[in-house]
Design brief:
Oligomer: single chain
Radius of gyration: 15 Å
Largest sheet: 7 strands, mixed
Structural class: alpha+beta
Distance between the termini: 24 Å
CATH architecture: 3-Layer(aba) Sandwich
Shape: globular
Length: about 150
């Protein structure tokens, strides 16, 4: 599968919000975080966000980039029905290519929920390594995230 990033549009953003992640991965379901949905749907927040299309022009994911003092943070979501089917490494590598084309940062950063071993393994196969662990309070729920980094 080829991944083509394009500027985020309203129909793309609405579709991503509706994606349902099931069982263990429901942690990533935006519908569980209603306070984030308004921000996600606001075009003012799309400057560094891309819809990702396949060869047929179907929405298969999204990439978001957040410049930080310590590097460029990459956020990415692969459509739920494509998870676990061997697309992860290529999806992450395309995000890295795009980041290196657009942004000057030497350090790339991905944060992953510590319990998501499948995603962590994909990120490591794409050249990222664990730099540190962060404890975060998400609406009263303590969570641990791994911060993975990769150099340009």
């Amino acid at each position: 599968m080829r991944f083509q990033p394009v500027p985020m549009q309203g129909d793309h953003a609405r579709a991503v919000v509706e994606w349902g992640f099931y069982s263990f991965y429901s942690f990533y379901d935006l519908r569980n975080w209603p306070e984030d949905i308004g921000s996600w749907l606001d075009p003012e927040n799309w400057a560094d966000t891309f819809a990702v299309l396949d060869e047929q022009g179907e929405l298969v994911g999204e990439y978001s980039f957040t410049p930080r003092q310590d590097g460029l943070e990459i956020g990415l979501t692969l459509r739920p029905d494509l998870n676990g089917k061997g697309h992860g490494k290529a999806f992450v590598e395309r995000a890295v290519e795009l980041a290196l084309e657009i942004y000057p940062h030497d350090t790339l950063i991905i944060r992953v929920w510590e319990l998501n071993g499948r995603a962590r393994r994909v990120y490591e196969k794409a050249g990222f390594s664990v730099a540190r662990r962060e404890k975060v309070d998400l609406e009263g729920m303590p969570c641990s995230f791994l911060v993975l980094t990769r150099q340009r």
